[in-house]
From TrEMBL:
Every HTH tetR-type domain range: 21-81
Species the sequence originates in: Methylocella tundrae
Signal peptide: none
Record-given protein name: Transcriptional regulator, TetR family
UniProt cross-references to InterPro entries, sorted A to Z: DNA-bd_HTH_TetR-type_CS (IPR023772), Homeodomain-like_sf (IPR009057), HTH-type_TetR-like_transc_reg (IPR050109), HTH_TetR (IPR001647)
Gene3D superfamilies per record: Tetracycline Repressor, domain 2 (1.10.357.10)
Length: 215
């Protein structure tokens, strides 16, 4: 009897867990669609609830505000970017290739995620606000610093300058997408090539001896 009762309790617990996961996923999927179509500022909790199929009470069991779910969705996107760019960077054999592969992975990922470009375009100032306080973006910056250090020794670029360079590389990629529009006004291959050349122009001030720089 005890085993049977325990088994029933376990199944009930698993069912509740599955229901919670399904509800949360439905709310997040609905919020993503709403934020992509009209933006977070114009959206209401009612918009999200109506699209999700859950009740308002269920929504508030998971998120207190629309801003809270926007933060979750933004951080999830940032984490995907961090993982994808980290994997791409591992294949680089020099600083220029590192930038090229990283920017390419970043732009390809955004274009592969349904609604990502619309999410960014319609929520630019909110995404910016998330970017510069995000622990995930700080992790992305730390990863980039490690990768750059493979090719730029401390004798050439100090740790402080390396941190600054990493932040600027990330910011340039973000701003390029913010200003590129949807679809991008410039093709993704052209954009990641431009970003690579632009950033390398700055890094070459340290990497290339003065006498060897183009006139």
């Amino acid at each position: 009897m005890l085993n049977t009762a325990s088994s029933r309790q376990y199944r009930a617990s698993e069912k509740r867990k599955l229901t919670r996961e399904q509800n949360c996923a439905a709310i997040q999927a609905a919020a993503w669609r709403v934020f992509c179509s009209i933006g977070m500022d114009a959206a209401t909790v009612r918009d999200i609830v109506n699209l999700s199929g859950v009740s308002p009470g269920t929504f508030y069991n998971y998120f207190r505000t629309k801003e809270a779910i926007f933060e979750v969705l933004s951080q999830n996107l940032f984490e995907k970017i961090r993982i994808e760019t980290r994997q791409a960077a591992a294949e680089a054999t020099n600083a220029e290739e590192l930038l090229f592969l990283t920017y390419r992975a970043y732009l390809d990922l955004l274009q592969s995620i349904d609604g990502a470009m619309a999410f960014i375009e319609r929520n630019q100032h909110n995404v910016r606000a998330q970017l510069y306080r995000s622990t995930t973006i700080r992790g992305l910056s730390a990863n980039l610093e490690e990768d750059l250090r493979r090719f730029i020794p401390a004798s050439i670029l100090s740790q402080h300058d390396l941190m600054l360079a990493s932040s600027i590389i990330i910011a340039a990629g973000a701003e390029a997408v913010f200003h590129g529009g949807r679809p991008l006004a410039i093709s993704a291959p052209d954009l990641h090539e431009f970003l690579t050349k632009f950033m390398m122009g700055g890094l070459n001030a340290w990497l290339v001896p003065v006498g060897q720089r183009p006139g």
